[in-house]
Amino acid sequence: MPIDHNMPAADYHAVDAISSTQLKDVCKGGVALWRYNQEHPFEETAAMTLGELVHLLCLEPHRIDDFAVMPKFSGKGMKQRKADWLTEHEGKLVYPAKMVKDAQYCLDSVMSVPSAIQLLAGKHEVSAFCKLPEFDVKAKARIDVAGNGWLADVKTCANSSLYKFKNAIRDLHYDVQGAFYLDVWAVVAKLYEHFVFVSVQTSKPFTVGLYELSQYDLDIARDKWHVAIQQIQDYKATGVMPPNCHTDKVEIISVA
To answer: To pair with 207 at 20 to 30 A between CA atoms, which of 21, 85, 230, 253?
Structure first.
């Protein structure tokens, strides 16, 4: 199944294969961070939950019946009323009212930008699976949008301005994700050269930014994920942890 257009996210995440998340972990914190995150349950933050909801509204509006808006509960008996409400909506994706409102602001901003609408045209939430020929390992990618000649990714962020989002790309290694997705897509479908971010700020004024990774950055990011996957393979083969330090020699430090 090299490409699946209908796979639920939970089923995708259950597939044992190298993902961009694992590669970004190595780039951020080495094999030590990768190993920790592999051994510990994923803890979702409020920002991640909001991002999930924005994705749902932008890319999977047909699933709107899958979630419920949780009202505020106060006063005497609030705990029981909340418990009863949650029981009544069991099986739903539950979001607080303010989060849903903020996600709607994000959606409205994205839909106000004609170029963003064009970039979101294509197949949504595409699961792709392949064996990477360079490393002989299974890989997977969950692609937000597979367009006609480009891949696009919706990113929620604190600030969608060019300078701030460029920093987010660097700090969170979104460039590695872009290069890896393009490379997986080249194996399972066709060679694309364009990876575009549709970024939207999650607080007022909910501004949208549209940014494409340069070929130069993609080439560097490709080298980064190659190194990361090699480090994972070496650790799996030997059990030897690479040096986990900021520097492997003593540095002169002054606090004056």
So the answer is: 21
